[in-house]
Backbone:
């Protein structure tokens, strides 16, 4: 177990969850379900006992240092990697891998997002343990794939091949988010899983794969590889990290590497990437409405998600399939079907009003 | 001119304008158009020079004393009649008439609501002066009727007869708010005016008409008629006023009296009774949207009125013909077509949550 590491990525801004998720309080820090624990805290809690506490690393932005220390008082500052710039998942994962490799070249790493919902924690822990077993003596990149239950267009998909060992299958292709027609085809073939963005790999394997398929990134990090896990590391990262390309690990490595496997899992997962995902995972009343932190009087209104940051009274009529989200200084009212456009709307907000509302 | 009096009714709560109009700050006290003057202040301003300042009376509720003194510092406390209970317009007008009659039995009274919009003030003043002239030596009840420009279902209508003198015609009938079909018939006949709720009459005439058609009210006020305009008046009113029936002047007197006339006027009037009326009277952008006190980014959204009390950012998509009104602790989202139902919704709020949000 001492070779096991977990990298929790918690530097995102969750822009599709705007205006709840804001630059100063992204969604991973929010107690979305009123359970008393934020999504990040739940992510941290659920790997306890699988990975030693001191082998848990968080990769984030320095602006969230205070939030992290408040929410995870057990985590010391040397467990947190502060990215000097936002560069998507590939540079984030690369840094964590170099850092861990300098400490323990036999490390087996689990990479986990901090803003997902997992309903069946016991099953989750069994899956993670099986995953660590699978990668123990192999040169492989393992991803967790979720059995799809609907033609979701908000997720990437993984096509699996025939070759398999237990619940693990060889990956044929990684695909981008499909449109609805294609998503339906994916589902009908039975060959596609949702890409959960959770990975397990030996540190040696991910570094080798990166050197082969994303050398633009490894070249940057290997300018002075001796700096990792020393007191020069932060200064070094400050100087080299910003020159990394903005690229996802899927695009940089997973779509290209030949030794990619998927563990097919089913533990009540949602990436909670969108209001619609939150809607799907929340308790609905008899009219299909979900309300969060508000008193609501809804007339002739169905299948809405209505969320207020303050404990506000909402009176609505004639609303169907809408997202209504109020965050004190911002009010968002859009059809649920347009949730993927919220990012565009947030861009418009930035163009028109600068960073004030982000 | 010294016989002229004006009674401004400003005790209403404007529930159709909820949640902007609240029990603690009804719409007449709000600067709706950002001009720097509230609707009450504008009502007061526009009769200056027509009625002596000291002959202007305000009828209201004691909870608004502070607001009135702040907004109208020229008005002294003995010009304000504080109703001990809310009893609609007939008892309100009756009290003012008895009060004025005790001071000046030759008084000619104009009764004005405090929450209407009048765009052409010069024309308004000419109409009021013509009205005072008409009632000077007659035993009549004169109402101001507005030439209708659409089959509005939110107003009462007045049917006029042939007999006329200048712009004044004899009234045939007062009617309640019609449904849309009936309103269209009213418009097509050319015989109907909108009932503005503004009246002019000799104090003798309104008291005589009340004694004849609403004796249940005059009997109450005449328990001790010597109390009016003395230092016993307030105590007297406290004891007798609450036993008055809750009834409008239209229903109690105007629909029944034979000597009712209407002056046909056109001075850019709206009763601003509803969000729709405010929408109609506000500047629209090219998509027909009206926004008040907010920054708005509206996508695929037309013909809405969006009003925020704080200077809030609103991002909306796919909204057509809606009222979106945010008042810090309350958010209202209803189709414009349902504006007449807002009162019902407010009742539901009261039933569910008590007075907190009224």
Residues:
């Amino acid at each position: 177990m001492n070779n096991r590491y977990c990298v929790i990525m918690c530097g995102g801004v969750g822009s599709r969850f705007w205006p709840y998720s804001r630059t100063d309080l992204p969604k991973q820090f929010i107690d979305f379900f009123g359970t008393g624990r934020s999504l990040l805290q739940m992510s941290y809690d659920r790997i306890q006992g699988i990975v030693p506490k001191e082998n848990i690393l968080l990769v984030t932005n320095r602006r969230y240092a205070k939030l992290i220390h408040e929410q995870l008082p057990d985590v010391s500052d040397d467990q947190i990697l502060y990215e000097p710039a936002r560069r998507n998942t590939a540079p984030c994962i690369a840094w964590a891998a170099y850092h861990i490799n300098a400490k323990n070249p036999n490390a087996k790493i689990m990479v986990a997002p901090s803003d997902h919902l997992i309903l069946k924690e016991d099953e989750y822990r069994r899956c993670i343990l099986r995953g660590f077993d699978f990668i123990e003596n192999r040169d492989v990149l393992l991803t967790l794939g979720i059995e799809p239950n609907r033609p979701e267009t908000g997720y990437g998909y993984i096509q699996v091949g025939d070759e398999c060992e237990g619940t693990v299958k060889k990956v044929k292709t990684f695909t981008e988010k499909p449109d609805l027609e294609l998503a339906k085809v994916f589902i009908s073939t039975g060959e596609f899983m949702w890409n959960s963005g959770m990975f397990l790999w030996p540190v040696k394997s991910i570094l080798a794969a990166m050197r082969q398929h994303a050398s633009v990134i490894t070249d940057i990090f290997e300018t002075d590889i001796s700096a990792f896990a020393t007191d020069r590391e932060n200064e070094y990262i400050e100087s080299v990290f910003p020159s990394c390309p903005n690229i996802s690990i899927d695009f940089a490595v997973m779509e290209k590497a030949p030794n990619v496997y998927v563990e097919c899992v089913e533990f009540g997962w949602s990436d909670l990437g969108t209001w619609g995902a939150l809607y799907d995972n929340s308790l609905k009343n008899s009219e299909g409405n979900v309300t969060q932190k508000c008193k609501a009087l809804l007339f002739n209104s169905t299948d809405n998600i209505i969320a207020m940051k303050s404990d506000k009274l909402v009176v609505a009529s004639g609303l169907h399939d809408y997202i209504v989200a109020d965050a004190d200084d911002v009010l968002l009212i859009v059809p649920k079907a347009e949730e993927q456009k919220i990012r565009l709307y947030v861009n418009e907000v930035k163009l028109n009003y600068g960073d004030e509302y982000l």
